């Protein structure tokens, strides 16, 4: 029985997917040659491909660049006060709103920067925050 189970497991996890996996690997390596990936440690490659899963939210705040705002403006202080009180799940949702993903890929967290700008709308009380995900800008009405 052990031999049967070993053969069955080998078939299911190796033999049955061997051809599709080889096809995938060939296509993947055509676009991303293996020599490029060898320069990374496994942990670095995982962060590059999957993104960071833990964040220093205070470092994120420190790295923000403000447009038409100053760090000590009341709107900015209110924003960060509320942000830091959010549960982790909501902070990740904000990150997804800002960047399109709840992870930061390909960056050292200290190098990740985003912008908070005043959209300078006529009536800010009737405007909602919105984001430009490709330019990493949060438009935050006063």
TrEMBL record:
<keyword id="KW-0436">Ligase</keyword>
<dbReference type="InterPro" id="IPR000569">
    <property type="entry name" value="HECT_dom"/>
</dbReference>
<dbReference type="InterPro" id="IPR035983">
    <property type="entry name" value="Hect_E3_ubiquitin_ligase"/>
</dbReference>
<dbReference type="GO" id="GO:0016874">
    <property type="term" value="F:ligase activity"/>
</dbReference>
<feature type="active site" description="Glycyl thioester intermediate">
    <location>
        <position position="134"/>
    </location>
</feature>
<protein>
    <recommendedName>
        <fullName>HECT-type E3 ubiquitin transferase</fullName>
        <ecNumber>2.3.2.26</ecNumber>
    </recommendedName>
</protein>
<dbReference type="Pfam" id="PF00632">
    <property type="entry name" value="HECT"/>
</dbReference>
<feature type="domain" description="HECT">
    <location>
        <begin position="1"/>
        <end position="142"/>
    </location>
</feature>
<dbReference type="InterPro" id="IPR044611">
    <property type="entry name" value="E3A/B/C-like"/>
</dbReference>
<dbReference type="GO" id="GO:0000209">
    <property type="term" value="P:protein polyubiquitination"/>
</dbReference>
<keyword id="KW-0833">Ubl conjugation pathway</keyword>
<dbReference type="GO" id="GO:0061630">
    <property type="term" value="F:ubiquitin protein ligase activity"/>
</dbReference>
<keyword id="KW-0808">Transferase</keyword>
């Amino acid at each position: 029985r052990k031999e049967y189970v070993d053969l069955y497991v080998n078939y299911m996890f190796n033999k049955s997917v061997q051809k599709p996996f080889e096809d995938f690997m060939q296509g993947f390596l055509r676009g991303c040659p293996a020599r490029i990936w060898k320069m990374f440690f496994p942990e670095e490659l995982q962060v590059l491909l999957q993104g960071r899963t833990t964040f220093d939210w205070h470092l994120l705040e420190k790295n923000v660049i403000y447009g038409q705002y100053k760090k000590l403006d009341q709107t900015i202080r209110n924003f960060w006060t509320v942000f830091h009180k959010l549960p982790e799940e909501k902070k990740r949702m904000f990150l997804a709103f800002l960047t399109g993903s709840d992870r930061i890929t390909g960056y050292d967290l200290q190098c990740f920067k985003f912008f908070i700008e005043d959209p300078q709308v006529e009536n800010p009380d009737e405007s909602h925050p919105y984001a430009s995900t490709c330019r990493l800008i949060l438009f935050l009405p006063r």
